[in-house]
Structures are given as C-alpha cells and as structure tokens.
Amino acid sequence: MPNKKEKIKLKPLTTILTLGIMAGALLYTFYFIYNNIYTTLNNARTIFILNNELQMETLDIKSFYEMEKIIESKNNQQALPKEIRNIFYYGVDNTTSTTSTEETQ
Questions:
Q1: Claim: this prediction has a pTM higher than 0.85
Q2: How far apart, in Å, are the Cα atoms of 38 and each of 31, 43, 49, 66?
Q3: 21-61: per-residue pLDDT in tens?
C-alpha cells in the first residue's frame, strides 16, 4: 500500500495527464466539426451561388468554323515532293546576270 507521499506525487501527474487528454479530445472535436460541417456548408453555399449565376453564353459561329478549318488543316499532312532540293549543294549558276541602272559619264 503506497504511503501518503507517493499519493501526493502521483496526483499532479494524473491531473496533468487527464487535462491533456481532455484538451486533445476538445481539439479533435473542433477539427471534426470544422471538416465535416463547416466545409460541407461552405461547399453547399458555393454550389447555390454558382447555380444562380449560370447564363447562356453567346457563341461566335463564324470564328468557331474558322478555328475548326485551321485545326483540320493542321491535322492533315501535306504530301512531300519526290525530289527534294539538296541544301548542301552549292553549285555555281551561270544563268544569272547583274544589271545596273546607273549611267556612266
């Protein structure tokens, strides 16, 4: 059987431990209320506001068809020519000539 001095030492420890558990339970309760009730109410309010602000948007049909043609032309591949110019060949072309419009004195 513990004596009086040991009982006095255990009493503050159990009090602090009990208060800590109660504070933790209180914090968890607030966290639960916030996540499950307040957040749900906030989401419902947002949905209600969005439902009231819905409007039909006017569409520019002409621009839509132009963009549709542009996208279609990008998706269609162009046929490559059979003979492709050799960009590494720098042959001399003798058929060109230069002319001058200045008159000599």
A1: no
A2: 10, 9, 17, 48
A3: 999 999 999 999 888 888 889 999 988 888 777 767 778 89
